[in-house]
TrEMBL record:
Protein name, as recorded: Endonuclease/Exonuclease/phosphatase family protein
InterPro entries according to UniProt: Endo/exonu/phosph_ase_sf (IPR036691), Endo/exonuclease/phosphatase (IPR005135)
Residue stretches making up the Endonuclease/exonuclease/phosphatase domain: 29-343
Keywords for the protein's UniProt record, in alphabetical order: Endonuclease, Exonuclease, Hydrolase, Nuclease, Signal
Superkingdom classification of source: Bacteria
Pfam families: Exo_endo_phos_3
Length: 346
């Protein structure tokens, strides 16, 4: 019954001003989620894991907090885009994770275990001890290559003092047989200068240029917590993100979250103002009208009621996991974002 309704909805959406014929489409979800300090309970003397809110708590409560945090993250991921795809996301880019082990615990949570997620992760030199990673359903996506792009920055003008941040993660693979390139980002925070985020944008852009140099029509998706909105010049001028679909040129990236931001929707809130730092952008090859291969159908912020602070001064804000030195029982200080991609079934 659901399958029939789903196909009708997609047919209507794709058939404006033409004589519609009912067609079936495969639907997959591509998502990104800032997991807000997903750290374990182990004191690793080789890393700065004291940046973890869990490690700041008394030893007796760490295990229970960790278990609840993992359960919460798995619950969210399992529901992203499910209403249309009837499946958990095929791809999930994540940031603010400590190591491979916390990711292994995450994909083995009851809410996610049946989806058989694989993990692409590299340790990065970030001063907070946090990394980026890519989760993928093994039945849908087959990685063929992965690497990291190191972002080299310095403290002010002193070239002898590195400012260590997270690497950008690059993964290439076959999604249902189609080659797609993914780049997962977590750019320097708003506590850093804009120049550092512009440097991060230039680094991401160089990866895109390299891919497009080999194949101008490559399918590329760039996702992340950019700590800049769709309107910032790091996105528009350096990464070449464009908010109007019909105006995207071959080397530019379509940013569907520009329109979403202009509708007053965000992924983070600060002093009663919404912003949209979490975004997914894509190359022009993913916004064509030929659905014989995967194309973007729609983009959204996943801001279900259970992810929102239920009461008080911050009612409606993302229900963050940690505040005032304790665990709130919440999820993350960011809402996740996602896009649906669809392909016509022969």
């Amino acid at each position: 019954m659901f399958k029939k309704s789903l196909l009708v909805v997609i047919t209507i959406a794709l058939s404006i001003n033409v004589y519609a014929q009912k067609k079936e489409y495969k639907v997959n979800t591509i998502a990104f989620y800032n997991l807000e300090n997903l750290f374990d309970t182990i004191n690793d003397v080789t890393k700065n894991d004291e940046a973890s809110p869990i490690m700041e708590m008394s030893e007796g409560v760490r295990a229970s907090v960790y278990e609840k945090k993992q359960k919460n993250m798995a619950r969210v991921i399992s529901k992203i885009g499910f209403d249309l795809a009837q499946n958990a996301p095929a791809i999930v880019g994540v940031c603010e994770v400590e190591n491979f082990d916390v990711l292994q615990d995450l994909v083995n949570q009851p809410a996610l275990r049946k989806y058989n997620y694989g993990i692409v992760h590299y340790d990065s030199p970030d001063e907070r001890g946090i990394d980026n990673a890519l989760l993928y359903q093994k039945a849908i996506f087959k990685p063929t290559f992965s690497d990291t792009e190191e972002l080299i920055m310095y403290r002010g003008s002193d070239r002898s003092k590195r400012d260590y941040t997270r690497d950008q993660l690059y993964v290439k693979g076959l999604l249902d047989g189609e080659e797609i390139h993914f780049l997962v980002n977590h750019w320097p925070s708003r506590g850093s200068s804009e120049a550092k985020r512009i440097l991060a944008a230039k680094s991401s852009r160089s990866v895109v240029d390299s891919i497009q140099g080999a194949d101008p029509y490559a399918k590329i998706m760039i996702m992340g917590d950019f700590n800049d909105g769709p309107y910032n010049k790091s996105i528009t001028d350096n990464l070449l993100g464009v908010g109007k679909r019909r105006k995207v040129k071959l080397k530019e990236l379509y940013n569907p979250f520009d329109k979403i931001y202009k509708q007053g929707i965000g992924t983070i809130a600060w002093r009663d103002t919404w912003d949209l730092f979490d975004q997914i952008m894509m190359s022009k090859s993913l916004i064509q009208k030929d659905y014989s291969t995967y194309q973007m159908y729609k983009a959204s912020v996943f801001n279900a009621n259970f992810l929102q602070n239920p009461e008080g001064q911050y009612k409606g804000y993302p229900f963050r996991a940690f505040a005032d030195g304790g665990f709130t029982g919440g999820y993350s200080d960011h809402f996740p974002v996602f896009v649906h991609i669809i392909k016509e079934v022969n």
